[in-house]
Write a structure and sequence with these properties.
Immunoglobulin-like, elongated, 5-stranded antiparallel sheet, 2 domains
Length: 480
């Protein structure tokens, strides 16, 4: 097994070296070729690898997001998994904060905040979310990285697909799909670790002891990742993602988008390096690298298109070509059609909405209690006379401990000294648990009316938080 892994690693590293050398060679001489188009008859896009300023930024950001995605479920906080969404118990733990269905307001506010931040950023910088941080783009480019390591450059992949089936083709295809499947499985496990305790999940995988339910979900997400990042790819961006459809409504002349400088670039045409530019030709050498590196297969020189995800790959490709020909960079660049207005009302509106949403989230956090109580009357009897000859009503106190520690609570009646609770007034509740406590309350002396208001106070003995609940105390048949 060790020898097989060593051979595989050696093969991958050697192919990567070939890819980089091939890329450098192709940059030295830019020629026009019939196979330079990124699409074949079947419609598959062969994404050319590109290096450059914006791709270094994207790769570093992607590495940070991937590390957070994989490692967050592994973190421990106060002896428990830091982030865990327990669907069965309808509970979400986030670094000591336990959220229950009644706390969904904070999630609604969080999604509102994310939406308005996305709108604000899109208004200023276009689809940078799609190009730099969207999981669809991240996984698509990771799968493409594997494809380039195994099959070679995008041209070599095209040639390989056109070849008849042979031992070499089968070996390369099997290796590629095996690595895709392994990455998909790791992705599914990392995702499921947010819903299943991570230690139990990974121990179950190693020991083949996962339950059929968890195994089914892991297989489902593995298949989804494999098909989505391996085959659907740009189709998700252009057909399934709603953002690509309504994004145009967020853009205006001040939005910074990837754009081609047609005035400078046209008329385009191939030429040799270190030779004077022919009369009538612009700076565009028509190398089509901007098309070959595009994950969605568009030609940015045709103008703004809803498919464009603002990833900057075409910018790096064009800048590299301009450098080879000693032309100024920026033929394709992030640019605005007009200078942004200083007091843009829409931006101010987004900023104000974001501020209000953040204020609402802060207020929710300040006013949130670490426990909740519900007070119910015993429906079996309106009232009864106990063995001491006193009028007695029974109440059920339902207490939810929303913290992640055992809490002690004390309940008392504070509006009338004639009421007394004939049971222990102090009780404990486990973290994240509901507890039902029976409270038999009797009245000292003769009640003045058949129905009175009774007020309960529940105190968290650790934090001092207090909740008040009221109900009715009945003492005669005339109460109805």
């Amino acid at each position: 097994m060790t020898e097989w892994l060593h051979t595989l690693l050696h093969h991958v590293l050697s192919v990567e070296s070939v890819v980089k050398n091939s890329w450098v060679a192709e940059q030295n001489v830019i020629i026009r070729t019939a196979v330079s188009d990124s699409k074949v008859a079947a419609g598959k896009i062969y994404i050319r690898e590109q290096f450059g300023q914006f791709q270094r930024l994207r790769r570093r950001l992607n590495s940070l997001l991937l590390a957070a995605f994989v490692l967050l479920p592994l973190l421990r906080y106060q002896g428990q998994q830091a982030i865990l969404i327990d669907v069965a118990r309808q509970r979400m733990d986030i670094f000591g904060l336990s959220l229950f269905p009644q706390d969904l307001l904070i999630l609604a506010l969080l999604f509102m905040l994310a939406a308005f931040v996305l709108f604000f950023v899109s208004k200023r910088y276009g689809r940078v979310w799609c190009g730099y941080t969207c999981p669809q783009t991240i996984w698509t480019l990771m799968f493409n990285w594997i494809e380039r390591r195994v099959e070679g450059t995008h041209h070599q992949s095209q040639v390989l697909d056109r070849q008849t089936w042979s031992h070499q083709k089968v070996t390369r295809k099997l290796l590629k799909h095996l690595l895709w499947a392994m990455l998909s499985l790791l992705t599914a496990l990392a995702f499921m670790a947010y819903f299943v305790p991570s230690d139990a999940l990974y121990q179950g995988v190693v020991g083949f002891e996962l339950s059929p339910l968890i195994t089914g979900w892991v297989a489902f997400f593995t298949l989804c990742t494999y098909l989505n990042a391996g085959f659907l790819r740009e189709k998700m961006c252009t057909h399934a993602c709603p953002y690509s459809r309504f994004q145009a409504a967020l853009f205006d002349a001040s939005t910074k988008l990837v754009a081609y400088d047609a005035i400078r670039g046209e008329s385009r045409g191939p030429r040799k390096r270190n030779t004077p530019k022919a009369t009538g030709l612009g700076d565009c050498v028509d190398c089509k690298l901007c098309v070959q590196v595009c994950p969605v297969g568009i030609d940015i020189r045709d103008g703004l298109q809803y498919d464009c995800i603002n990833c900057g790959l075409c910018v790096d490709a064009c800048d590299a070509t301009m450098a080879r020909f000693n032309y100024p960079k920026g033929l394709i660049r992030y640019a605005r059609q007009a200078t942004p207005v200083k007091a843009n009302r829409l931006n101010l509106g987004y900023a104000l909405t974001i501020l209000l949403t953040l204020s609402a989230m802060v207020y929710w956090g300040i006013s949130r209690n670490t426990f909740e109580v519900n007070l119910l009357r015993d429906r079996q009897a309106l009232y009864r006379i106990n063995t001491a000859g006193k009028v007695e009503n029974t109440y059920l106190l339902k207490t939810l401990n929303k913290s992640q520690q055992v809490r002690n609570y004390k309940v008392s009646v504070d509006n009338n000294p004639n009421f007394s609770i004939r049971s222990s007034q102090v009780f404990s509740v486990k973290p994240g648990e509901y507890q039902l406590t029976a409270l038999p309350v009797s009245y000292q002396g003769t009640p003045q009316s058949t129905k009175q208001t009774i007020a309960f106070t529940v105190v968290d003995l650790q934090s001092g938080e207090t909740l008040n609940r009221t109900s009715s105390f009945y003492s005669g048949t005339g109460a109805w």
